[in-house]
Design a protein that fits this description.
It contains nine helices and no strands.
C-alpha cells in the first residue's frame, strides 16, 4: 500500500470517530427535559407618599394657616427697609413713609411702618409726614399717630400737618386736628369757627412772616 493510501485511510477513520462522538452526545441531550422557572407574582409594596393619607390622596393644607415663607409683600418690604444699613435714618424714614402711604397692604403693616417712620424722621424734615396727612381718606389709626407726632414738631410742619388732618373725612380726626390748629393760630382751642381758623392758618403757612 502506498503512503498516500495510508494517509487517506487514517483520515477516514478519524472522521468516523468524530461523527460517532457527536451522535452520542446529541442523544444524551435530547433525553434531558428543560426546567421552566415559575414567574414571580409578588408585587412590590407601595408606600403612601409624604403628605398623603393611607389611601394615597394628597392632603391639602388647612385653610387659614399661613406658612412662614408666605409673608406679605408689605411685611417683607418693612423688614428689608429696617435691616438696610446702607442708608441713614432720614433716608430710611422716607422709605417707611412711602410704605405707610400704600393702600394695597394691610393696615397693621401701614401702622407699623408709620410708627417707625415718625421716630426716624428728623424734626426739620417732616414734609413727608405732612404729605401723608393730606390724604382725606387716611385711616384714623394712622391719623392719630401723625397728630401725636405733629404736636412735638416745630412749625411749619406742626401747623401744616394739623391743617391737613383737619380736612380728614373722619369726624373725630377733624375735631382733634382743629383743636391744635385753633391753638396755634389763636392761642385758644375754643376761639373762632373752623372756616375762619383754617383760612388764617393757611395764610400763615403761605406767609412765613405771619408765623412770628
Amino acid at each position: 500500500m502506498s503512503r498516500s493510501s495510508k494517509l487517506l485511510l487514517a483520515a477516514s477513520v478519524c472522521l468516523l470517530a468524530v461523527l460517532a462522538i457527536l451522535l452520542t452526545s446529541r442523544q444524551k441531550s435530547s433525553g434531558t427535559s428543560s426546567v421552566v422557572l415559575p414567574r414571580a407574582t409578588t408585587q412590590r409594596e407601595v408606600k403612601p407618599a409624604a403628605g398623603s393619607d393611607q389611601g394615597g390622596q394628597i392632603k391639602r393644607p388647612e385653610r387659614g394657616r399661613v406658612r412662614e415663607d408666605q409673608q406679605s409683600s408689605g411685611s417683607a418690604q418693612l423688614d428689608a427697609i429696617l435691616r438696610d444699613t446702607t442708608r441713614d435714618d432720614a433716608a430710611v424714614a422716607v422709605k417707611l413713609q412711602d410704605l405707610a402711604g400704600r393702600k394695597d397692604i394691610p393696615l397693621e403693616e401701614r401702622i407699623e411702618a408709620l410708627e417707625h417712620a415718625v421716630l426716624l424722621t428728623p424734626d426739620g424734615q417732616g414734609e413727608g409726614l405732612v404729605a401723608l396727612a393730606r390724604d382725606p381718606a387716611l385711616p384714623p389709626e394712622l391719623a392719630s399717630i401723625l397728630l401725636s407726632d405733629f404736636h412735638n414738631r416745630p412749625d411749619p410742619v406742626r401747623l401744616a400737618g394739623a391743617v391737613a388732618l383737619a380736612k380728614n373725612k373722619d369726624a373725630s380726626t377733624r375735631g382733634e386736628a382743629m383743636d391744635l390748629v385753633r391753638f396755634l393760630v389763636t392761642g385758644n382751642e375754643s376761639e373762632g369757627n373752623d372756616v375762619e381758623i383754617l383760612e388764617k392758618a393757611e395764610a400763615k403757612l403761605q406767609n412765613p412772616a405771619q408765623r412770628e
